[in-house]
Structure formats: structure tokens, C-alpha cells
Amino acid sequence: MQDKLIETARLLVDGGRGLLAMDESNATCDKRFAKFGIPRTEAARRSYRELLITTPGLGTCISGAILFDDTIRQRKPDGTPYVKLLTDAGIMPGIKVDTGARPLALHPGEKITEGLDGLRARLHDYAEMGARFAKWRAVITIGNGIPTRSCIEANAHALARYAAMCQEAGLVPIVEPEVLMDGDHTLDRCREVTEATLRSVFNQLNMQTVKLEGMVLKANMILPGLHCPTQEPVDVVADITLRSLRRVVPAAVPAIAFLSGGQSGELAFSRLNQMNIIANRAESRLPWRLTFSFARAIQNPALEIWQGNPANRQAAQHALHHRAACSLAALTGHYSAGMATVERKSAAA
User: Fold this and answer.
1) With the CA atoms of 212, 214, 219 and 221 taken in that order, what torsion angle do they form, in degrees rounded to the nearest 10?
2) pLDDT tens, 225-242?
3) Contacts of 330 (CB under 8 A, 6+ apart)
4) Cis peptide before 254 (omega within 30 of 0)
5) What is the DSSP letter of 225?
6) Which of 115, 104, 204, 101 is nearest to 146 (CA)?
7) pLDDT tens-place string over residues 299-319
8) At 258, phi and psi to the nearest 5?
9) N or C: which end of the chain has fewer CB within 10 A?
């Protein structure tokens, strides 16, 4: 079992591709639809998700797709399961298994991610459906007096228990402790909280005897809060992020997949690109691969172009593929400013 987990984790991050996060809940998906006047219906969500996974050539850029519960169960009108569409395209199907973040009792402003109840049975069912990996997201908020040690430890413990049950079921766990960008905190405060969170997470993973070689860490970049008056340049963010992760992420972890976390596509690609430029220097070799697990940074232009209109499907898929290709370029240090906007011109042509 452990050899299979290690092989699956390796396949998920090898080959210079990354992950497409398309695991938005129905409520989150509907909020995005509302912005563009798209009907907030099951049929519209199905059409959009099918648009994503049937994008021609997507497998050249994407190694795995994180799905929502509805999506992994869905089929095309001809009966073909979405899981088969992904597998045939060379994309590994994965599944989000947490049930969302809820207020942490007696800790104002902090949250705990739920979903451990019944998880063992759900993981078994997802594996039977064809899932090869899973994802669980914890959220850590920086604010006045937070995060508390209690919040960090509670979320780290839940992440570790989830990861252990995933590996028991033969699924590779994507472990995502996200320090949120919201707020006016400094870059250094984000570094401090991220390092404390990751130390706690890996301590709990070790306590639960999770095999680190059979998991993937999904991490935030070290960033100042969105409302911080000082926004450091791309090269500073990249350097600090890698220095920080070197301190706390064990070498046994095969890969770190960065989330976009509300960054613009341009910034997410540029920062990841600079990290890979640094990583490719002989004196800066890293023990783990750097990859991406982006959602909005890849999807947003496609959604804006599609707007629920079937006539826009091809242009939307072109935009999606282009954004995935931008993410791919960032993995080799070949992304350049302006690349992310090309799809809009192409779609309008």
C-alpha cells in the first residue's frame, strides 16, 4: 500500500504539470455565477464543470483535478462518467473531502474545518468511484490576537487525522493549511504564522504516522495582507517563501503545490515563476518539487467569457487552456509579464 501511495504522489507531481482546483462548493460556484448573471442551477453548474474537464489538450498542463462531491458522480449526457473523461485525458481525479470551515468554539474570528465524521466510509466510496487523491483545507486567519495556538493545533490535528485515513484508504492526501491573505498584516507576520502552522501540521502528521513520501503539501505563498500598505515585489516574495519553507517542510515531502489564494493570475504566475527560477539555480536546489494547485487564477477568464452561453464554450475553453499553460510556464521559469492576458484577445478575435 505504501509503495502505491508513493507512486501515485510521484505521478501527480512529476512530468512538469500541476493541479486544477475545481472543487468549489455549489454555494461558492453560485456566488461566482451571480457576478455574471449566470443561472444558479444544477444544470448550469454541470455545464460549466463539463466545459472545464473537456477542454482540449488540458492534460498537457494538468496532472490532477480536484473535484467536488457532485462532480465526481456526474456523467455526460451519453453516460460517460466525468472521472473517465479525466482519466482518458491523462488527468488524475481527486476529491475534496472536508465539509467546510466553521467557527471555532470560544475563539472569536477563528475557524475549524469539519468533516472527520464518516470520513473513512466516504473515502472508501470515492476510491471506488476512481479518485486517486483527496484534499482537505484548513484556514488560518491573521488578525488582532489571532491565530491562537489552540486554533493552529486543532486544525493541524484534523489535517493529520484526515491524511492518515486517506492513506489507509489508498488515497494520496493533499494537506492544505492556508494562511489567508485577508487583512493588513506584514509579510513578516505572514511568515511567522505560516511557519508556526506548518511546524504544528508536520508534528501532527508524524504523530499520526502519516507517510510523508505519500502526500503533497498545498501551501500559501508568504505574502503581506491585501490591505497592508507595503506590498513587496515578486523577487522578495519568492525568496522569503522558499527560505521559510526550507525551515519547516521535511525533505521527504515530494512536492509543494502553491495555491493562488485570491491573488490575480498575473501575480500568482509571476511569483511561482520566480520561485522556480531560484530553485533551478545550482546552489539553490530544493528537496521537493514546486508545482501549482490553482482555481480562480486558471478559471476566472473562462467563466467570464462563458457567462452561461453555449456559443462561448470554445472561447472559454481556449482561455482556460491558456491560463493552464501560463501556470505550466511558471514551473520552468519561462513565464513573462503579460502572458496571462493573451487569452482575452484570442477569444475576442
Assistant:
1) 80
2) 999 999 999 999 999 999
3) 269, 270, 272, 273, 276, 292
4) no
5) -
6) 104
7) 999 999 999 999 999 999 999
8) -80, 140
9) C
Listed in sequence order, the residues at least 6 apart from 229 whose beta carbon sits closer than 8 Å to its beta carbon are: 184
Sign for the pseudo-dihedral over CA of 108, 244, 295, 122:
negative
List b or e across 110-129, with b for residues whose CB sees 16 or more CB atoms inside 10 angstroms: bbbbebbeebeebbeebbee
| CA–CA separation, 33 and 320 (whole Å) | 16
Residues 6+ apart with CB under 8 A from 280: 333
Ordered by where they begin, the domains of the chain are 2-348 (3.20.20.70)
Backbone angles phi, psi at 279, to 5 degrees: -65, -30
Beta bridge partners of 139: 178
pLDDT at 179 over 60: yes
DSSP-assigned states of every residue in 163-221: HHHHHHTT-EEEEEEEEP--SS--HHHHHHHHHHHHHHHHHHHHHTT--GGG-EEEE--
301: which 3 cell numbers? 477568464
CA of residue 127 relative to chain centroid, distance: 20
- pLDDT tens track for 268-290: 999 999 999 999 886 678 999 99
Q: CA 299, 113, 8 angle in degrees (round to 5)?
A: 60
Average pLDDT over every residue of 322-334: 95
The stretches of 233-312 forming alpha helices (DSSP H) are: 234-248, 265-279, 296-306
Instruction: Place 2 in a pLDDT band, splitting at 50, 70 and 90.
Output: confident
For the stretch 107-121, pLDDT in tens is 999 999 999 999 999
What residues act catalytically?
A: 176, 218
Q: Beta strands of the chain (E only): which ranges?
A: 18-22, 62-67, 92-96, 101-103, 111-113, 133-140, 172-179, 216-219, 255-258, 289-294
Sorting pLDDT into bands at 50, 70 and 90, what band is 96? very high
Tell me: pLDDT of 337 over 80: yes
Write down the pLDDT at residue 204: 98
Contact indicator for 28, 21 with CB cutoff of 8 Å? no
Report which of 93, 163, 162, 174 is spatially closest to residue 135, judged by C-alpha positions. 174
